[in-house]
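ARCHIVE CARD
CATEGORY: sequence design from structure
SOURCE FIELD: tokenized fold
FIELD CONTENT:
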């Protein structure tokens, strides 16, 4: 009874934090003519409610694609349509065709924020509860602490409830997919991940680990017997899921092709804004966009991404395990973020989700990583007027991670999952002190983030260098992300498969 009381209080605390952030400003508030992501979500409700399905993704006199044209998969469009029907019952002016463009009011803001809370409560939060209480390591107290840390991860709260998006839906479906595979319900897990992918195409960041884990599991069962049957069932589930989501667009091939063009707009370029990935960081020295043709940039990013994710995927295919699956989700999503084409700063949330799943196993590195992901989005948060929520949520997450999960105390080689590696290298590095190096690096990193946050908020950059602080934040975060990619790849590739895990997989 006491544990369930703590669970209820943790959920209440998470919801309170979300609603407190939602009281602040949002993306593009009062900034005509384009406004921001808040207006984009409202506009999609307007389009899906007032226009036939055939026009949702096409440029017409009633649907100007240059003004926040729909560029997410069909499930996002259906969600917008559902929200639009409810909005129509409350106030039709919110979604009236053409005249509602740029609509802003207190009541409408309240409604839009409520739709995010509803989506969170239906999809994401139940998945977090189930994972934390039944799949995370440790005592019941530690499980509740893990749940609270996941619920209070500031990056997701600030983007969904501050900036305004519905990342909780796609990430929630992805988490249900992880739970399905962890339970051995591969068909349910595949269905859940298909829903995630049909809600946001960026879930492709997680696709390879799902594919490699399931294929490896089927291969172990034998591709001429039970394994083949299981693989065909999974393939059928995936095909049926996609067919159902895309049903209105399959009658006409031109419709389906137009949707795909909107989902993958290669003409937008290699990256946007000051994102902490390889191409943006490299452009500080070499203007890749100017030197290479768009098609060459696309091929280069594809090759680099494939090289970054291949080692982890091969290991997962050869030795499929739930723990290896979680590590592969981290390395693949981070590899996609660092090297793929057309990356946004908010895409780092896709790497943050699997790291949240590891926070009870590797609390020190996970806490550090999640702090850097939030910090990397600071220029966007400052643009949206979310400085105070950023400070409060970041400090609250840090405090809870340190006090409840003892994150700063778990820096030994065993806690960092590097004991096996350092045992082999001990003869060559007898004085190497991993705990001291880890703590020193972390403290220095946090101090630098604090200083850069203060400078970005309090000072104006020189006229000659208007992007000084965003670029500094991007480069600082990029260096960290490269280090984290190496770290998570190292522990995944050097970890020996346990007999217990292999039996569970089989």
């Amino acid at each position: 009874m006491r544990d369930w009381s703590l669970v209820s209080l943790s959920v209440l605390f998470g919801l309170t934090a979300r609603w407190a952030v939602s009281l602040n400003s949002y993306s593009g508030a009062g900034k005509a003519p384009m406004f921001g992501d808040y207006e984009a979500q409202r506009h999609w409700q307007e389009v899906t409610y007032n226009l036939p399905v055939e026009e949702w993704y096409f440029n017409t006199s009633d649907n100007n694609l240059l003004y926040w044209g729909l560029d997410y998969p069909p499930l996002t469009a259906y969600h917008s349509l559902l929200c639009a029907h409810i909005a129509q019952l409350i106030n039709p002016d919110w979604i009236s065709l053409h005249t509602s463009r740029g609509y802003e009011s207190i009541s409408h803001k309240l409604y839009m924020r409520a739709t995010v809370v509803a989506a969170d409560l239906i999809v994401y939060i139940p998945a977090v509860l189930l994972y934390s209480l039944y799949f995370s390591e440790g005592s019941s107290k530690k499980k509740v602490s893990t749940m609270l840390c996941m619920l209070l991860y500031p990056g997701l709260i600030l983007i969904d409830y501050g900036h305004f998006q519905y990342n909780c839906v796609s990430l929630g479906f992805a988490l249900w997919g992880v739970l399905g595979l962890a339970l051995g319900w591969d068909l349910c897990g595949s269905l859940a991940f298909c829903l995630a992918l049909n809600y946001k195409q960026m879930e492709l960041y997680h696709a390879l680990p799902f594919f490699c884990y399931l294929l490896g599991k089927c291969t172990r069962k034998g591709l001429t017997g039970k394994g083949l049957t299981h693989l065909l069932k999974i393939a059928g589930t995936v095909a049926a899921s996609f067919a159902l989501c895309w049903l209105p667009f399959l009658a006409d091939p031109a419709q389906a092709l137009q949707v795909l063009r909107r989902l993958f707009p290669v003409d937008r370029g290699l990256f946007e804004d000051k994102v902490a990935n390889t191409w943006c960081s490299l452009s500080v020295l070499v203007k890749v966009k100017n030197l290479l043709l768009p098609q060459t940039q696309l091929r280069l990013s594809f090759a680099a991404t494939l090289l970054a994710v291949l080692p982890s995927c091969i290991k997962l295919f050869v030795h499929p395990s739930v723990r290896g699956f979680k590590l592969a989700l981290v390395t693949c999503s981070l590899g996609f973020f660092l090297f793929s084409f057309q990356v946004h700063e908010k895409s780092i949330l896709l790497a943050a989700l699997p790291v949240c799943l590891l926070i009870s196993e590797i609390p020190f590195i996970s806490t550090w990583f999640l702090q850097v992901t939030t910090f990397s989005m600071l220029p966007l948060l400052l643009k949206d007027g979310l400085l105070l929520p950023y400070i409060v949520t970041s400090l609250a997450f840090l405090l809870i991670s340190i006090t409840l999960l003892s994150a700063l105390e778990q820096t030994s080689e065993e806690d960092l999952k590097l004991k096996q590696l350092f045992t082999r290298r001990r003869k060559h590095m007898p004085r190497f002190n991993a705990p001291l190096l880890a703590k020193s690096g972390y403290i220095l990193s946090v101090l630098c983030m604090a200083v850069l946050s203060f400078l970005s908020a309090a000072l104006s950059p020189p006229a000659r260098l208007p992007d000084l602080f965003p670029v500094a934040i991007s480069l600082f975060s990029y260096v960290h992300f490269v280090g984290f990619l190496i770290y998570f790849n190292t522990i995944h590739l050097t970890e020996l498969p346990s007999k217990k895990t292999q039996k569970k997989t089989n």
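CARD ANNOTATION: The chain has a mean pLDDT of 92. The CA atoms of residues 6 and 12 lie 10 Å apart.
SHELF: design records, drawer C
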